[in-house]
Amino acid sequence: MEFRPFTIDVPQAELDDLHERLTRTRWPAELQERGWERGTELSTMRRLAAHWVDGYDWRAQEERLNRFHHVVAAIDGRDLHAIHERAVRPGAPAILLLHGWADSFYRFAHVVDRLTGRDPAVGPDEPVFDVVVPSLPGFDFSEQPEAGTVSGAQSAETVATLMEGLGYERYLVHGGDWGGVVAQEVARAHPDRVLGLHLTDVPFPNLFLVDRETASQEERAMFAAVDAWGETHGGYVGIQSSRPLTLAYGLSDSPVGLAAWLVDHFGHLSDTLPSDDDLLTNVMLYWLGNSIRSSMRLYNEGVDGEWGGDAGGEAGDDAEDASGWSGGEGADAGWSTRIDVPTAIAVFPRDIAQPPREYAERFFDVRRFTTMPRGGHFAALEEPQLVVDDLRAFASELG
Q1: Which distant-in-sequence residues (6+ apart) come within 8 Å of 264 by Cβ?
Q2: Residue 215's domain spans which residues?
Q3: CA–CA gap between residue 287 and residue 3 (Å, rounded)
Q4: Is 31 inside a domain boundary?
Q5: Torsions phi, psi of 173, nearest 5?
Q6: What are 123-136's pLDDT values in tens digits?
Q7: Which entry of 123, 153, 370, 397 is 20 to 30 Å from 299 by CA?
Q8: What is the CATH number of the domain that holds 230?
Q9: 121: in domain
Q10: Is residue 20 part of a domain?
Q11: What is the pLDDT of residues 235-284, one digit of tens each?
């Protein structure tokens, strides 16, 4: 596999076009400020847009991101972008960090130097790692797969191929949201390569693999909370699953519309919103790559094609039928709901679900289960040190 270096260098014409669009924003006719109740808070969006026009400096962010070593590899005929940073000490283990939606590889911008040891605050005895942060296929600077079904399993094979090409025979894998789905599929398909699996949630499609009639009281409470969240905040899943192209017309054309759609997720799932610069840099990666439509393919292709069932509905009575793999057409006869790779789960209080340990143990060999004191769905961006500390502790426990 050949790798070529990659530098983020956005043509000035694209930035000029963005600036013009921002100055011509037409705001919605919202009569009454209601916070985040009806969507992304209007006052927050007005503040972000004003900062985007007059205070935000993409060139400074670009320079900061280019301090990382970026590479692009052609895998299955499509370019895959990744950050690849070596640890300060030779022979360190490698860790693969996988983002989800509505974030990007930028989720890990504040953890890379801490994990490699390049951050001056990292002590000489603290564990360090070689770090690989891909943009998932269809996100940011990675090309989307050809027409057809996109799934977590397919993305897992792509990033596993990336790691093999970089020379890593064994490595740790960390992920959350869709990144957690991809991470568990790397571990399921290649357990011999994965030293340990570290997740900030139990991947949401696993909900369809549990018969709720046999669930414990604690698990049923979690299911009820997830159902309630879906009724109140989960509308984006239905839209992105059923009408992604219709939605993408507006989001691909309006930068403020795109920002509002993405930032809404941060507003509901963070203890404290990331900084305005962090929020806007994440939005910029979607805007500059025109990747909002391709990022949605996991929703309208990845769930039904992989687990079956209704992404917004309850888990089925029959775990085999609900899985879409164990009994579905073309399913691998060796597929199992359980992954026997050492696993750590870090649960953050503002995330969508608060899974009990017994639920995680249905699917994983759980060696470490941590309930965090603060933080939410985008933990590595919101509480980077908590994530780094838990990763280090897990790696040390693995020996």
Answers
A1: 36, 39, 40, 236
A2: 3-24+39-398
A3: 25
A4: no
A5: -130, 135
A6: 999 999 999 999 99
A7: 370
A8: 3.40.50.1820
A9: yes
A10: yes
A11: 999 999 999 999 999 999 999 999 999 999 999 999 999 999 999 999 99
